[in-house]
């Protein structure tokens, strides 16, 4: 008898309580999606580029409507790529620009910041206005405003600030508010589709032509890796950094009339960057009740080189072998087309119902 081999599923689909009910009643329809979060995660974004291209290039355009994109760190850059030009072109451009970044051992935070600013210039060129006035998408960039020692730009002071965040976070996530405040940078006068933000001091900052790039650079400014952003027009004075430190996977109080569609790197929602090793600290089910999370399956990850998506550790893994890292990352980008193809196939066939799991 001839054995029949079938490829393992590339995607995991998980839904919050109300999203499960909604999907079972109405199906997976693009018209129902009104919020899309984008997590921090650096090079992991390359590993889901094909999924992003399917979502923004095929699925969502099939039912045009006004939608909110809420991104932290690389999530905000993904959405800037989507809203500044044709989505597929922009996402492909972002993946290639990121892949080509080279950071030699000992490079200073100032030089890393300079190179990231150059990358942003190459990504956006002169299309800032397209982001600010996009007819279908409203961009929300998540940043943090540093407090206390976290407001130091490098050196022992910043190191002590990070140690303070780690220590207080073990006791209480809310206690990290002594070191960080949330900043939400967005345009328009309409309120965001979020409930009250009572967990941390939160600043609502107008997104404008003179601060768009500052917001995007701040949202990706990892402490000790990049310099914090201090020249931030329209924002309260301070040092602004990577929004993923506080809102790593964007565990926010979403208020959606339809669905929150989350193309994600993993099937877990981790509230803050410092919560990664704390397996008991996950997203609040009440906040995520309208969410459909779509992420690479374990079988898909196992099929990749090194058994994972690209990440920042690859700069060390491929130290002095930039060509090897770039080849690995390009392969991961190419493989990610499977994620997008499977998402569209599941949506068209209705077979997603068989794969849906509780979040």
UniProtKB/TrEMBL annotation:
InterPro entries found in the cross-reference section: Acyl_Trfase/lysoPLipase
Name of this protein: PNPLA domain-containing protein
Organism: Alcanivorax hongdengensis A-11-3
